[in-house]
Design brief:
By secondary structure, the chain is an alpha+beta fold. Helices cover about 20% and strands about 30% of the residues. It contains five helices and seven strands, in the order E-E-E-E-H-H-H-H-E-E-E-H.
C-alpha cells in the first residue's frame, strides 16, 4: 500500500494590522528554501571598554535572516483551465505580492502629496502593516525586510516570468525597535520565550564530559 506523503508546512510572510491584529495578507513560499542563514550580533555593554560592565547585555541580540527561494510556474501552466492568472501573467502576481511589502501604496503616496500641496507642515508616513516571518510554530518573528532581489530566469511568449529565484534579507524587530506595548514587541517576546523553552530541553552534561572536574 502506498503511504500518504507527509504534510509539509509552508514558510511565508504574514502581514498584520499592528492595532487590531487582523491578518491582512499571507504570502507563502511556493517551495521552502533548502537553507536559512541566521546571524546574531550581541549587544554587550563590555564593548565600551569598562571592565565592570563586561558581562552585561544591554538588549536582545540583533538577529538577521537570509534565505533564497524558488518560484516556478511550469507545473501550473500544464493545467491552464485551473490557473488562468498564471497563463496570463506568469509569476508577476507572486513577485508583486512580496514587493508590495516594501512600498507604500499608491493611494498613500497620492494622499501625502495632496497634504504637502495643501501646505501641511509635517506629514507622518502611514504605519505599514506589521510584517511577520513564519518558519514553523517555533519561529513567528516580527521583521523588517532589508533586502530583496529577484532573478527572472525564463519567460513565456508574452515575456511573463515563469521561473525565478528570490533572495530575502530580514532583520528581527525587537523591543529595542518597537514600543514595549506594540503588538510586534509582544510577538517578539513570545518568540524569545519559545527559544528559552527550547534551550531548557537541550542536554547539559557533567563537567567530566569536557575533561575537567571543576571550575576555578
Amino acid at each position: 500500500m502506498t503511504q500518504p506523503l507527509p504534510h509539509v508546512l509552508k514558510a511565508g510572510i504574514v502581514l498584520v494590522d499592528p492595532v487590531s491584529g487582523t491578518v491582512s495578507r499571507v504570502i507563502s513560499m511556493q517551495y521552502n528554501p533548502d537553507s536559512v542563514t541566521r546571524t546574531l550580533q550581541v549587544q554587550g555593554i563590555g564593548e565600551s571598554g569598562d571592565r565592570s560592565e563586561a558581562l552585561r547585555l544591554k538588549g536582545p541580540a540583533i538577529e538577521t535572516f537570509r534565505l533564497d527561494a524558488e518560484l516556478d510556474a511550469t507545473d501550473q501552466l500544464e493545467f491552464p483551465d485551473s490557473n488562468p492568472d498564471v497563463v496570463a501573467l506568469g509569476l508577476h502576481p507572486q513577485i508583486a505580492a512580496l514587493e508590495s511589502v516594501l512600498n507604500p501604496t499608491s493611494v498613500e503616496l497620492v494622499n501625502q502629496n495632496t497634504l504637502a500641496q495643501a501646505g501641511t507642515l509635517e506629514i507622518a508616513p502611514s504605519e505599514a502593516p506589521l510584517t511577520l516571518f513564519v518558519w514553523s510554530a517555533q519561529r513567528v518573528v516580527p521583521v523588517r525586510i532589508t533586502e530583496f532581489s529577484v532573478t527572472e530566469e525564463a519567460f513565456d511568449t508574452s515575456l511573463n516570468p515563469i521561473r525565478a529565484r528570490l533572495s530575502l534579507g530580514m532583520r528581527t524587530l525587537s523591543v529595542d525597535d518597537l514600543p514595549f506595548t506594540h503588538r510586534g514587541s509582544a510577538i517578539f517576546l513570545n518568540y524569545l520565550q519559545a527559544k528559552e523553552r527550547l534551550s531548557a530541553k537541550a542536554p547539559s552534561p557533567a563537567l567530566s564530559a569536557l575533561g575537567i572536574g571543576e571550575i576555578g
